[in-house]
Amino acid sequence: MRSLEGMWTLVEVPSAQEHKYTGVRSSSSALCLCEPQTFPCITWLRRASRQLGNPSQRRPPARPPARPERAPTRTLGEQRSATAACRGITQVPNLVFWSLNALFLVSDTSGKPNFISRYRIQIGKNEPVDPEKLRQTIRAVLFNQFVISFPMVIALYPLLKRWGDPCRRELPTFHWFLLELVIFTLIEEVMFYYSHRLLHHPALYKKIHKKHHEWTASIGLVSLYAHPVEHVVSNMVPLVLGPLLMGSHLSSITTWFSLALITSTLSHCGYHLPFLPSPEFHDYHHLKFTQCYGVLGVLDHLHGTDTMFKQSKAYERHVLLLGLTPLSESIPDTPKMK
Q1: Under DSSP, is residue 246 helix (H, G, I), strand (E, B) or coil?
Q2: From CA 283, how far away is CA 47, in angstroms rounded?
Q3: What is the pLDDT of residues 59-84, one digit of tens each?
Q4: Residue 142 included in any domain
Q5: Of 202, 270, 311, 323, whose CB neighbour count within 10 A is largest?
Q6: Maximum distance among all alpha carbons in the chain?
Q7: Is a pLDDT exceeding 90 seen at residue 89?
Q8: Is residue 116 very low, low, confident or very high in pLDDT (cuts 50, 70, 90)?
Q9: Torsion angle of C-alpha atoms 218, 224, 229, 232, degrees rounded to 10
Q10: What is the DSSP string of 80-104?
Q11: At 16, is the secondary structure helix, strand, or coil?
Q12: pLDDT beyond 50 at 163
């Protein structure tokens, strides 16, 4: 047997272990005998020993593989906020719409009470209203409200939330709400005028807008009696665009929609009642078709689409009635020449 002297070398071999659960590395060493032929590995072993002794040269512990990130999901509170927003934006204005129209329908179908019938603009028409035509109108209005308007509001809710959470706790100040109403009204005037006038183009009128003009003497429900395309383009978009651009609060949107439906109902009701906005402007549009396209009349004045209206008796009656005498009696139409 060969002697260990000169033939074998005693070497301290470093070793390292990583804890199974904590990931902490620990170092240790062991003694072993190496043959001369293995002397080149001794340098490497010593270098490894120095690295284990120097913390700055140690490799960082291996991290477990990262789990794939899941797509963010809405919390229960956010879902409730979205539901409350959609209900507030649609159900409250709808309740206001049907409550007001129910009062007008009593007079439209029965002619009572008599003091309301006295204020009818187009005397002798809709006295009473055609029942079949009324049922057809009610079906179309319900379809537009629940099949078109409600899903459209749900689809637009993420856009409302992007500009500003409509269900935030802070209510808008009264001055800010008045500013919003001014902007909403101006946007509606521009969008409604041009979309409405576009629908009177011969290529679109017969297929789309003619349905709304089946009523030459309109009633309150006719405000939402329209082809689905017209309901989206001319009724919904002009109303929704303002709150979208302003990032409005739920209370502002609900109030705006309710006011818009009240105004539209009064414009179509066919009665010029005391202390209420005059419906003569839009009633004249249903009578003549090619006049008075807008809501406020500003763009009609600029484009000259109210010239016939300004020459009519309806223009003289287009004022706020502050007395109880019907304007059809104080300012009667000019008798037709035979």
Answers
A1: helix
A2: 98
A3: 555 565 555 555 445 555 556 666 66
A4: yes
A5: 270
A6: 146
A7: no
A8: confident
A9: 140
A10: HHHHHHHHHHHHHHHHHHHHHHHHH
A11: strand
A12: yes
Residue 231 identity (one-letter amino acid): H
Strands (DSSP E) along the chain, which ranges? 9-18, 25-34
Q: How far is 252 from 258, CA to CA, in rounded Å?
A: 10
Which residues share a beta bridge with 12? 31
C-alpha distances out from residue 176 to 92, 182, 244, 249, 259, Å? 22, 10, 15, 11, 17
> Does residue 65 sit within a domain?
no
Integer CA distances (angstroms), 300 to 165, 168, 208, 209, 318, in order: 36, 39, 22, 19, 15
Task: Give the rounded distance of the alpha carbon of 48 from its chain centre.
Answer: 67
11-45 pLDDT, tens digit per residue, is: 444 554 544 444 445 444 444 544 544 445 555 54
**C-beta of residue 279 within 8 angstroms of C-beta of residue 267:** yes
* CA 335 – CA 89 distance, rounded (Å): 47
Indicate whether 168 belongs to any domain. Answer: yes
Kindly state the tokens that stand for 27.
């170092």
Tabulate helix, strand, coil % of the chain (nearest 5): 60, 5, 35
Q: Tens digit of pLDDT for each residue in 187-233?
A: 999 999 999 999 999 999 999 999 999 999 999 999 999 999 999 99
Q: How far apart are CA 167 and CA 248, in angstroms?
A: 9
Question: Quick check: 158 pLDDT over 90?
Answer: no
282 within domain boundaries: yes
Count of the separate structural domains present in the chain: 1
Specify the amino acid at residue 3.
S
Q: Give the pair of three-digit tokens for residue 207.
A: 């297929």
CB atoms within 10 A of CB 313: 14
* Whole-number Å distance between alpha carbons of 272 and 332: 13
| Structure-token match 């395309």, residue found | 229
DSSP state of 70: P
State which residues form the domain around 229: 91-322
The pLDDT of residue 146 is: 93
Show Cβ contacts of residue 165 under 8 Å, excluding neighbours closer than 6 positions.
81
DSSP string across 105-117: HHHHHH--SHHHH
